[in-house]
Amino acid sequence: MMRRFDLKALWTMILAGALATVAFDGLGQSISPLLGFPTLVTVTLPNSVIQALTGSAYMPAAYLLHLMTGLLAFPAGWMFVAQPIAQRLAPAVPRMLVAVVYGALLWVFALYVMAHLVVGLPAFLGFSSVAWVALVAHVLFACVVAAVVHWRDND
């Protein structure tokens, strides 16, 4: 069944995105360095994208881009693309496994498409330690989105 975009879907998207963004930023900026891994500076890439596209960096826009991606774009990708495709093509695959794959695809989008193809950085940041923190953070993000969407769908 295809999901309708209505007020409940919008609020689900925003709630899922807000909680997932807090988890992403909390892991990347607090938990990772506490465990001895690099800090994931979440607005560096959006700022570099803005600079690549406009010719000048603008940190307020980078924060806005990060927030809108987390609150709307990535949760919408789960709700209206990834989840329906998985339900149609592989209904027996557990939701959290689909979410892990979706998170890995978000990581590919961020670190290959945006960082490499748009900004010009090494693909996947050269598989440096911060790239692996970003992978874990994107997978966590997707799992939180999937859990919140499931909870709201069964509310």
Tell me the layout of helices and strands.
Elements: H1 7-34, H2 44-54, H3 59-89, H4 95-119, H5 129-153
Throw out a few tags for this protein.
77% helix, 0% strand, globular, 5 helices, mainly alpha, 155 residues
Kindly estimate the percentage of residues that lie in beta strands according to DSSP.
Answer: under 5%
Pick out the low-confidence regions: none
Shape, principal axes of CA atoms:
globular
Cα end-to-end separation: 17 Å
Radius of gyration: 16 Å
Count the DSSP helices: 5
Helix and strand composition category: mainly alpha
The count of DSSP E runs of length 2 or more, i.e. the number of strands, is: 0
Number of domains: 1
The average pLDDT score comes to 96
Explain what this protein looks like in three dimensions.
The protein is mostly helical and 155 residues long. It is built from five helices and no strands. The longest helix is centred in the middle third of the chain and has 31 residues, at 59-89. The model has no long low-confidence stretch (mean pLDDT 96).
Task: Give me a quick take on this structure.
By secondary structure, the protein is mainly alpha-helical. The protein has helices spanning 7-34, 44-54, 59-89, 95-119, 129-153. The chain is globular and about 45 Å long.
